[in-house]
Design a protein that fits this description.
With about 160 residues, the protein is α+β, with helices and mostly antiparallel strands. The chain is built from two helices and nine strands. The chain has helices at about 5-15, 50-65, and strands spanning about 20-30, 35-45, 75-80, 100-105, 110-115, 120-130, 135, 140-145, 145-150. The strands form two sheets. Strands 4, 5, 6, 7, 8 and 9 form a six-stranded antiparallel β-sheet that branches. It has a three-stranded mixed β-sheet with strand order 1-2-3, with helices on one face. The longest helix has 19 residues, at about 50-65. The N and C termini lie far apart (about 50 Å).
Length: about 160
């Protein structure tokens, strides 16, 4: 059986709870004989296991209505891991005050503290090394369009 990714995306949007601030950051549908549908959700306050389970049940019901109860597939609904890059501007808000590693579209890399988010981008106080010392530069605005990849720096201090 072949699943239509666009149709699965529509069913997924209809499966999100109205009252939760959840949004989709990833959807893959494999082309295997038994397709695997992998959904990655996030929210402005993060996403919990109960929310993933609720969306999973709702989406499974809709897939069965669309493709029939005999449809053979695997469904995984998850949240992004700590090591996953930020892919949606809405993900940045809850990471204000944390350090980010950025790869920009021009090939440069920056590391610094996320001080603020705006509708257009972020304010990053870049940390640079100078003569065996770390120096924090004044916060600079970086548009979302210039960010190729952003990851939260995990600290165990």
């Amino acid at each position: 059986m072949k699943f239509d990714r666009d149709r699965i995306a529509e069913l997924l949007q209809a499966s999100l709870p109205d009252d939760a601030n959840l949004f989709v950051v990833g959807l893959t549908v494999s082309d295997a004989i038994r397709p695997k549908v992998t959904v990655t959700l996030d929210g402005e306050q993060g996403v919990g296991i109960d929310e993933c389970a609720q969306v999973s049940r709702r989406l499974a019901r809709r897939i069965e209505e669309e493709y029939g109860e005999e449809a053979s597939y695997t469904l995984e609904v998850t949240s992004p891991g700590a090591d996953q890059p930020l892919t949606d501007p809405r993900q940045y808000t809850r990471h204000v005050g944390r350090s980010l590693d950025l790869k920009l579209t021009d090939g440069t890399e920056k590391t610094g503290v996320l001080e603020e988010t705006t509708p257009e981008g972020i304010q990053l106080a870049e940390v640079v090394k100078e003569k065996n010392k770390k120096k924090t530069l004044p916060a600079a605005h970086i548009p979302f369009a210039d960010i190729a990849e952003a990851k939260v720096v995990i600290s165990f201090k």
